[in-house]
Amino acid sequence: MEDAPNSTWASTRTSSRPASHKSARSSKSAKSGRSQLSSRTTEETPLLAGDPSDDEEEDEPASATASLLRLRLRHGVPDTAKGGKARFWRKRWPSILALVVLCIAVVFIMLGFLATEGIEEYAMQAADFKPTKLSLDSLTANGIKIQVEGDFTMDASKVEKQSVRNLGRFGTWIASEVETGPTDVDVYLPEYGNVLVGKARIPGVKVSIRNGHTTHISLFAHVEPGSFEKIRNVANDWMDGRLGQIRLRGKAEVPIKSGLIHLGRQIVEDSLVFQGHDLPQFPRYNITRLNLREANDGHKGMGADVSIMVMNNFPVQLNVPPVAVDVLVDGCAQSELINVGTAETAMLEVRPNTDLEVNVTGKVEKLPHSLLDVCPDSAKSPLDVLLGDYMQGQDAPIYINCCKFPDPETPNWARDLLKDITVKVPFAGRDMGNLIKGFTMADVHFNLPDPFAEEGDPNSMPQISAIVKVDINLPHEMNFPLNVSRVKADADIYYEGRILGKLDLEKWQHANSTRVDAHGNEAPSLLVESEIKNAPIDIVDQDVFSEVVQALLFGTSSIMMDVKAAVSVKVDTPMGELAVRDIPAEGVVPVKPIGSHKGGHNVSTFAPKIYNLSIVDTSRTSIVLQAHANLTNPTNYSATVPYFNINVLVNETILGQAIAKNVEVHPGNNSGILITVVWDPYRNSGAIGALVGRELLSQFISGYNTSLTLQAHNGTIPSQPALGSALSRFPITLPAPSLSTPKKPDDSDPDDPDDGTGHKRTHFIRDATMHLISSTALFTLASPFNSTTLYITNLNATAYHDGHPSGKILYDLPFAVPPGLTETPRLPVDWSFGSIGYDAILNALGGTLKLSAFAHVGIRIGRWREQVWYQGASIGAHVRL
């Protein structure tokens, strides 16, 4: 049996009208001390108990009429969770109200037959009433018929003063038992205008009042509610937390007799105070089943089936008729509530101290626009806020507007009492955890930043386009069709726990979805596919980005990128299309490095092969060249490069820049990429640069195996200097492009074989003819350019045979080398008479021999001039007179 809540009785007035007297006696006040109320009650605490009088009060004259008893009424109140189910409590409100009124009535009856002179103080401390059953028998047209059972006992040991205890024992031994007649008890609310809250009609009761005797009481009473409006005001104050305490004032006129002696009609009037912690709380509850589905019987909208187990620790028995309520949620304004649907329950049978299973059926036909529209000065709608709280495991507040009774037999007074009462219910949220089951990206395309975009412009950031496939876990309770039509997201990307950047999909992207039913241990899921276009990526931490680039370029296993996003979706549901914003989602995205694609190719595969070299502009120190390049992209990613500027280096010395504009790179072979190279060693690296550049050109035209290094820098992508700086850590070294020279129709030499000295035979000097008598030489040259004329401004060359000099040419007059094959003027030769080399030439008269040459050559192309050296090997020379 649960204990009743502690209460404090405050006496107001008591009067009596004995049957043997026509005039009423004048009442006298009697003071009695109050005993401290225990903060915890037990089953031994009496229903009727008073505080012992002070010693000084023993000498005061007894009151001519019985003074008001100070009593404590006890009944069970469970220690409930703050967020109990309000709808269940609403349905119990009329019954609980009736039971409270009835308990007060029973107390007044006890007061009536005990409040005789001489045993008043004894009764206050010795009387004890323990309710054992409170049940609702039936609803009537005007109220409720209730059955009350309990045990009444007089326990003299609880009386503190011996004189009072002895007097009481003697008086109650003589009286033996008392009996009351039918009584009406009125209960008022003093703090609410002294309004009548209810009336109880109690039948007569006979009890034994001898010490230690227990009388079992069983009676049926009829309770009628009073002012509905005032009762609703009290209920609203209680539910809103504004009710610190409540005081009930009761008044009854109780006829009493003992045996054949009528003791008259006692008027008993007293107050009962319930402190805030003594007021009933919502019962604890647990949602055992939740099923969201399409509406039944061809109706539009959605239905919900909910099973709730309510912990009932009350000694109460009642039947609650079927009830329907409106379900509301918070709107944009603080006081605005939005009606979203209805909920109904069947008849409930409540049994004492027995947990109750409540089955609720809900229905939502159409969501109002006020629920879906974004609130002013906010980026979310009321629905977004509600779902966001729920999915993060927070209590999502909903409101229950009571009540409608489908059963026509429900009395009108119950409808009038409970209508327009709104209860706030904290609906327990569910932490969805990791909603992302799988995440893949296909047809990935990167756009590098626009070099001319202003800072903060999305075009100034790298952008990504891809087909994204996301497999989303669905809760088991979601059993209705839905289709995601559009998505957008604001995501943070992490690598090894550190933030890399932000992905902002601020525009709605088209999407479609497919439901995958549950199978085995796998829960149902929703496969969403969306094509995102040009989503900007804001790099936050450049050091992290550098590590990611390094792992992509040189790693062999996939790297894991953590994504934490606020996802917004537009969903087609049985209630129509709705937008749900900022749904929290997390996922892990594996990204394959370049080395893992197509058989383990690495970044060197990107090295371009240059052809169709041409000069488009010159200055005193620079040459601007254009060329076409072929490269192979071993990844599955494609990219758009609006502008790219990369340094050209030799031995860590910057000699120029290679520039690409509006380049589209797709997986596999890419040909015909136009590249502009600005060759300006002096401007980039000063005198050292000019020296290194001269040496490189000399080795290059002599056919040595030379190489160039391509390295990014801060200005590689002007609008993203940090990105270029990160890429600069990964230079690429590749062979210098070969010079393509035209061939004679009868040229059977397909390649340039290595001569064993570290360089290949060049085709720059294709042929030579030596004239002995005139001491001149004529050379056939093959220009490496298709449209540019090269000028040789001076020449200092020596010819060799087997390492022995054969002759020397000194020539200071410039001559042109146009595109294609061309012959030089007759160049004067100073023969090395008597040398082994000259003898070899004489011996070859009328035939050919192989010569080598070393020369210092002055070159001019447009305004650009340079002095280089040239070393040629295996030059075929014809010897003529």
From TrEMBL:
Region (Disordered): 1-65, 736-761
UniProt domain Tag1-like fifth Ig-like: residue ranges: 759-869
Key word Lyase present: no
Residue ranges annotated for the Tag1 C-terminal domain, each copy included: 478-592
Domain of life: Eukaryota
Bias-annotated ranges (Polar residues): 1-14
Transmembrane region(s): 95-115
Biased composition (Low complexity): 26-40
Coiled coil regions in record: none
Any one GO cellular component localisation term in the record: fungal-type vacuole membrane
Domain Tag1-like fourth Ig-like: 608-722
Segments of skewed composition (Acidic residues): 52-61
Keywords (A to Z) from UniProt: Membrane, Transmembrane, Transmembrane helix
Protein name per its UniProtKB record: Pre-rrna processing protein
